[in-house]
Design goal:
The longest helix is centred in the N-terminal third of the chain and has 20 residues. The two termini are about 45 Å apart. A six-stranded mixed β-sheet has the order 7-6-5-8-9-10. With about 375 residues, the protein is α/β, with parallel strands linked by helices. Helices cover about 35% and strands about 20% of the residues. About 25% of the residues are buried.
């Protein structure tokens, strides 16, 4: 049984290695959006040969030996297809394996070298855990506290005058037994909130929205592996912003002009109303094609300076097209070329193969 477990573990390591080799392809798969962490996905893996029996070429006899050539019909029956000969090309030997999205998220973290996040702030929640800090007079033998039992027996013998210093034999009796007992105590947990903002204006085409949704999905999945309690808020905007549920965020199709400050204002309102930076790890993510009314930029940068950046662990801006200028304006406004800001991360990604690099850039600091 031990050998089987070792072989299975080795096989899983091989699979993980193959997945890492083609990680960019799997990450760009838009069909995975909407699945949950424990859902299974089927992934075709090339280049893995399943174990099979191979006969020793120096031995004769056995199955498949005797008169006849390869391809001859058995028992004189005509082979299906008449006299057609078998082809000489190699076939496809893809092996389809089953992995959970949680496993894919772990592989993503391993491949990108993403650190485990060290969250700031925590708060007490209504979760309790057993801690064995108290002593009881009854309990199972497995929880017997030998030191406490010995001390209680010694105290009893001294009190009753049966203790002999010349022959210090301590014999615990039933009333001397002491046991470790569980005590329920509140367990502090760290909390995080992700605030996703997406441009759904007329300039955002289907490809841009697909890139944003796929990137958001994998960021969300990986952060859920780091935080036990994770809340998500979703904002879509054109010239106006509104909060939506997860399904609407991933499926809404709208049009109109673009006013990024409307999303930043709603994000600021949500933070100030619901999430104190003292108790929450706050991660706003904004995705757009970079096309914004230049007259609106000053309001955007003011909201970032005054509210969003001071409250957040990290603000990430993702631009899914190279035609917009907002990313350049953002760099100039905060002088990021000469003075990088540890709270601002920016990525420009225009195709599915860029998503991995964007995620790595966003989360590489592990803040």
């Amino acid at each position: 049984m031990g050998d089987i477990n070792i072989d299975h573990s080795r096989y899983r390591q091989i699979i993980r290695g193959k997945v890492r080799e083609n990680l960019r392809h799997y990450i760009a798969n838009n069909d995975l959006i909407g699945k949950q962490g424990k859902d299974k996905v089927h992934i075709p893996i090339r280049g893995i040969n399943l174990p099979r029996f191979r006969f020793d070429q120096f031995q004769q006899g056995g199955t498949g030996q005797g008169d006849g050539d390869e391809g001859d019909p058995i028992n004189g029956d005509e082979a299906p297809g008449g006299n057609k000969k078998a082809g000489d090309g190699s076939g496809s030997h893809d092996l389809e394996v089953e992995l959970s999205l949680e496993e894919l998220a772990d592989i993503l973290g391993e491949e990108l070298g993403l650190p485990y996040i060290k969250p700031r702030g925590s708060r007490e929640i209504n979760e309790e855990k057993n801690v064995y800090k108290s002593i009881a007079h009854e309990g199972p033998k497995s929880l017997r506290h030998f030191k406490r039992t010995y001390k209680q027996a010694l105290k009893r013998q001294i009190a009753t005058g049966t203790y002999d210093p010349g022959n210090p034999v301590i014999v615990p009796q039933k009333e001397d037994m002491r046991y470790r007992a569980p005590q329920l105590i509140p367990k502090p947990e760290t909390n995080a909130v992700l605030i996703y903002m997406m441009d759904v204006s007329g300039s955002m085409g289907d490809n841009e929205k697909r890139l944003v949704r796929t990137t958001s999905f994998w960021i969300d999945l990986w952060l859920q592996r780091n935080y036990k309690h994770l809340e998500r808020r979703f904002i879509i905007h054109d010239s106006d912003a509104k909060e939506v549920d997860e399904h609407a965020f991933y499926h809404t199709k709208e049009s109109g002009g673009t006013k990024i400050s409307s999303a930043y204002q709603l994000c600021s309102d949500i933070i100030q109303k619901d999430y104190s930076p003292e108790h929450w790890n706050i991660y706003p993510f904004h995705f757009t094609d970079g096309d914004n009314n230049s007259n609106d930029n000053s309001r955007c940068f003011q909201l970032l300076r005054d509210i969003i950046l001071p409250s957040s662990n990290l603000f990430c801006y993702g631009q899914c097209a190279d035609r917009g200028h907002y990313v350049d304006d953002l760099i100039k406004a905060f002088d990021l070329t000469h003075h990088p800001n540890e709270k601002i991360r920016m990525s420009v990604f225009t195709e599915g193969q860029d998503i991995v690099d964007a995620i790595k850039n966003f989360l590489k600091t592990g803040r």
